[in-house]
Amino acid sequence: MKTIILKGRPAFGGIAGGEALVCPDSIAGNTGSLGETDGIIYEHGNPNRGKCIKDTILVLPCAKGSCGWSCHFKSAKINGNAPAGWVVTIIDSRIGVAIASLEKPAVCDFAEADPVKIIKTGDWVKIDGSTGIVEITPK
């Protein structure tokens, strides 16, 4: 398989790799959408309902819902269920706080291509949060 390279803006330094978990409509920030102790997505209508974010490269278009959005991800991290890294089409304050509090590599703000449309769940993704380079190996 041919590797696809995307370039975004570095958001949090470091290198991470893992299987992509793509949530095309993000994950809702209301209580109960993301399991704070098990990292499982419980949001009704989310195509990844029942999947765990642990050790994945979480691919989101943006944050969604409550301003407490980042707290659910921080709780999942405290319980050992953090993603390995983040790829975010457009960053906002909610997701910026989540990225900073989880201290995981992140790349955001893609001007030339939307990673949510290019990356598929299950693809292998390596991100460099210091350079903004995202390498995608389709499954």
TrEMBL record:
The Phosphomevalonate dehydratase small subunit-like domain, residue ranges: 34-103
Pfam family, one: AcnX_swivel_put
Record-linked InterPro entries: PMDh-S-like_dom
Single GO term (MF): lyase activity
Keywords, ordered alphabetically: Lyase
DNA repair found in the keyword field: no
The protein's name in its UniProt record: Aconitase X swivel domain protein
Organism: Sporomusa termitida
